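Suppose a colleague, Dr. K., hands you the sequence of a protein chain of 123 amino acids and asks what its three-dimensional shape might be. Before reaching for any lab equipment, you can write down a predicted structure in token form. Begin with the sequence itself:
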Amino acid sequence: MKSSQRTHPGWREERMAMATGSDVLMQCLQEVRELQQQVQEGEERSAQQLTLVKEDVGELQKNVKTLAENVSTLADNADKTRLSHERYFNKIGRMLNMLAEQQLNTQGTMDDHERRLRMLEKR
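The predicted structure, expressed as tokens, is then:
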């Protein structure tokens, strides 16, 4: 520093102001760097989380597909069971109708035999 500058009134204040301004600027730059680092770390964490979410979604998609296939198979089996039961009940219904007809025929035959016996007894 030149001696003429030192003798200038207020040179110390100017020097202090310049030093303080430089310090503030350096501190601001440091804070900006720290913020940039935090942003970068945040982006890395977000990217990692996004990767995990994508993996989870892929796994969930597979599980939903498997569930849909299993539900479809279950529905098919339930439909087959319903059809089997329907055929079974239809068959039982036909057998009951056939038994009812046979009982009516047997009853008619018995009534016929009783009538004939009465006629024979009256003779």
